[in-house]
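#onboarding

Welcome to the new folks! Below is a worked example of what a typical request in this channel looks like: someone posts a single protein sequence, and someone else replies with the predicted structure as tokens. Don't worry about understanding the tokens yet, we'll cover that in week two.

Example request:
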Amino acid sequence: MLRRSREGRADLVGLPARTARALAGALQADPDVRWGPTQVARALRRDSDEAAYAALEAGSPLAGTDEATQRIAVHPDGGTSRSAAAGAPTGETAVVGPPTQLVGPPTQLVGPPTQLVGAPTALAGPPSHDGYTRAMPVVTGATPAVTGPIPVGEVRYQAFDHIAATAGVPDDDAESVEPLPPEPYVAPPLARRSGTVLAFLVPLVVLGATRPVVAVGVAAILVVLCRVAGQASQAIRDRRERYGAVRRSDGVVATVAFPWHAILGALGSIPQLLVAGCVGVLVVVGGYWLFGAGRVIVMPRDDIEARSVGGMNAPIVFCAVLALATLLTAVVAWFGPAGETGRRGARALLNTFAPGWIGAAVVIVACLVGAWLLARSLLEVPPVIHWWPLDGPPSL
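Example response:
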């Protein structure tokens, strides 16, 4: 049964064509092809209307009308005899004696059931009529009752496509019923711009190698800007989904609400900046202590000052420590707590100001050129680390 449900096949033996198609569509496992409540109600209503029309054409009363209700007569002797003549007076239905009760255990079937071989034998003589039996007319066009054996196995379970193809039901059911309600507006998802975001990271890391404090300030500005853009874009998307369409006043509303979104974005970025700043400070302090004078010497200096303290590393080693600290700070600020709003804002900004692959190519080239210009200070011998606005590196 579970496998048939996954494959969209159902047991719909004996149902009319339109009803079978409606129920098969409603039982589809794939949400893209599954029928909704309105479509199912249309098909069932159409099927009911056709059956009612067929009954009227045949001259039969519809169920629920006065003509279709028949009062049951009671025998004059209280129902104890079946020999009353036809045409006995009618009256209210009476209960004669207590209801029939089951005496003893129910009869059980022993052995296989008896099967009918050949055609059934016709009863001799005309049917018996005692005045209380009424022949019900046959409704032309109604669904016949299933009298034969029901198929077993996989033959009886048909797929939705097969039912829809063999039912002979046209797809233009909407011509005689009300139209479907419009689909609710769903804002399109923002395209991911992972490559463009990585391009921004390259010049930031190069800048942090020689100017760490400036790099941290630039990273903080980018985080706040992206978070403000994320707050504003999410507010516009919620507004459009609430009203069901893009409205002309969206731009005006976004402009008026921008100061409020700026405040929310700035306050919301504080946890990101605090956690990321702590990570960066720990990496810088740990790196300066590890590669300090007289400890782990990777690239030793040859001057007298270095030899007098047991060895010192070249400045390029500390540039690498600062570059690593800048990289980790940016990654934690991007993927850290409450970072989803900032990432959404970055996608909104890039899709607005640098759309498509052309905009991405322009941004990537500009970032690479900026990284090359900033890396020129690393090529100096020896490279100089600027701690502005601080006085110098951290010390333990």
